[in-house]
Design a protein that fits this description.
Elements (H helix, E strand, L loop, with lengths): L2 E4 L9 H10 L4 E7 L11 H8 L5 E7 L7 H7 L3 E5 L6 H10 L3 E6 L9 H4 L4 E5 L15 H14 L4 E5 L4 H10 L3 E4 L1 H4 L5 H7 L7
Parallel strand pairs: 1-8, 2-3, 3-4, 4-5, 5-6, 6-7, 7-8
Helix pairs in contact: 2-3
This protein binds D-xylitol-5-phosphate and zinc ion.
The site of D-xylitol-5-phosphate has 21 residues, from strand 2, strand 8 and helix 8.
């Protein structure tokens, strides 16, 4: 089944713990945590202390998306906070191989992400040591943007690469994902659908999550 990872960026931050519990109760597979440093992207969100504070409320898989420069510096802090997977950007400053090594060294799943304008060839070298490729389908930094359809061929390209290598690789997509765009991405080879605004605007996101889980080819 396709996994659904609601992005907590669209949650009501004044009730972040309750929102996390709501996501888990709705049947989400993962909870997506968008960390922004005001440098890699213009926005600033939250860091390890906030993640640690909500970690005790739920055992759901914490899918941390680090939109930060030199992510290797912070791997231990996010691991200590209770993240299950840490995804770093291939465009970020610093040694991305070192970041992946540190994530794997802590026994966590490692992901590598690429921006809409970055070709798939740029992340391929990192994927041998990773568990997931995160294909951004909007420019990172803000929720509620429109899906960029031109990114879809990169999903197929990465999936074909993984198939040729016989590698089990999750591919997640993030940005402007709703029932329609999520289906397009799952059909192209995505196995994890990240969505903020399209799920959080619903009073009950569980029927939508149940529907998305039936999309597309899966691992
Ligand atoms: C954007 C974040 C996304 C964001 C998606 O930089 O990485 O996870 O929350 O929000 P929607 O689904 O509203 O595009
Ligand atoms: Zn994200």
């Amino acid at each position: 089944m396709t996994k659904v990872s609601p992005s907590m960026l669209s949650a009501d931050f004044s009730r972040l713990g309750e929102e996390l519990v709501r996501v888990e109760a709705a049947g989400a597979d993962w909870a997506h945590l968008d960390v922004m440093d005001g440098m890699f992207v213009p926005n600033i969100t939250f860091g390890p202390p906030i993640i640690k504070s909500i970690r005790r409320l739920s055992r759901i898989f914490f899918d941390a998306h680090l939109m930060i420069e030199d992510p290797a510096r912070y791997v231990n802090a996010f691991a200590d906070a209770g993240c299950d997977m840490i995804t770093v950007h291939c465009e970020a400053d610093g040694d991305i191989y070192e970041a992946i090594d540190r994530i794997k060294g802590r026994g966590l799943k490692a992901g590598v992400s690429l921006n809409p304008e970055t070709p798939a060839s740029k992340i391929i070298p990192y994927l041998d040591g990773a568990d997931l490729a995160l294909v951004m389908t909007v420019h990172p930094g803000f929720g509620g943007q429109s899906f960029i359809g031109e990114c879809v061929p990169k999903i197929s390209e990465i999936r074909e690469w993984a198939d040729r290598k016989g590698k089990k690789l999750e591919i997640s997509v993030d940005g402007g994902i709703n029932a329609d765009t999520g289906k397009v991405c799952a059909d192209a080879g995505a196995t994890v659908l990240v969505a903020g605004s399209s799920l959080f605007r619903l009073n009950d996101m569980s029927p939508e999550i149940a529907k998305w889980k039936l999309y597309g080819p899966t691992l």
